[in-house]
Specification:
The protein is mainly alpha-helical and 223 residues long. The protein has one domain (3-220). It is 84% helix and 0% strand. The protein has helices at 3-8, 13-45, 51-70, 74-100, 105-130, 138-158, 161-188, 194-220. Helix 4 (74-100) packs antiparallel against helix 5 (105-130) and helix 4 (74-100) runs parallel beside helix 8 (194-220). The N and C termini lie far apart (53 Å). The relative contact order is 0.16.
């Protein structure tokens, strides 16, 4: 079996499903490890969170998947995914450091990490065990992305805690839906590519974690 066939996950549903799932979660675990290293380096470097840093993070975070999807080589796409994940972790570290610096910050970060892990594992297990096709969520998820983006733009001007809490709550629900949707794609899309599924799942995890940080901080009364 060629490497290209493994990367694209082509083949019959009965033979490709275990391979696609195995390759995706193996790659995702390595990508998460690289992102963790990037975040650790960022925390050690003492980067400060600012609007400029947020803009740089958004450019890298949003632009990375487009560059990876545009790659014509499986090997190049994998290495670009690792580089993107490491840089994402590095650029996210100032925000993590900002939460760690407030009273009870360590508990907030740990709760956000635990909540992210619990939601991801639980939702993935639901999709994998039930084998339900969640493609019907597509239109709802796209509409949700637009609503959240509009809310973030409004928040830049209004700066109201209630709006921030509402946006983060919606984002958590939205990312939960995307995890179900992307996991379902591994099962039902015969041409599913483990690299691109990994990129999407990693993005879901990062957004979910960042908004859980905000939720736990606000609910604790320390933000």
């Amino acid at each position: 079996m060629s490497e290209q066939r493994i990367l694209t996950g082509t083949g019959t549903a009965s033979t490709s499903l275990p391979r696609v799932v195995r390759n995706t979660y193996l790659l995702l675990s390595m990508v998460m490890a690289v992102a963790s290293v990037g975040a650790f380096i960022g925390l050690r470097s003492g980067l400060q969170w600012s609007m400029g840093m947020w803009l740089v993070f958004m450019v890298v975070f949003i632009g990375g998947p487009f560059a990876i999807n545009a790659s014509r080589s499986g090997d190049r796409a994998i290495w670009m995914t690792f580089a993107w994940a490491g840089l994402t972790g590095f650029l996210l570290s100032p925000m993590i450091a900002a939460y760690l610096s407030i009273p009870g910050g360590s508990a907030i970060v740990m709760n956000a990490l635990g909540g992210t892990a619990a939601l991801f594992v639980g939702l993935s297990a639901v999709a994998l065990t039930t084998k339900k096709d969640f493609s019907f969520l597509s239109s709802f998820l796209m509409a949700g992305v637009i609503v959240v983006l509009l809310g973030i733009v409004a928040l830049l001007f209004l700066q109201t805690p209630m709006l921030s809490l509402l946006i983060s709550g919606l984002a958590v629900l939205l990312m939960s839906g995307f995890i179900l949707y992307d996991t379902s794609r591994m099962i039902h899309d015969g041409a599913a590519n483990p690299v691109y599924i990994t990129v999407s799942l990693f993005a879901n995890i990062v957004v979910l974690f960042s908004h859980l940080l905000n939720l736990f901080a606000m609910l604790s009364g320390d933000d």
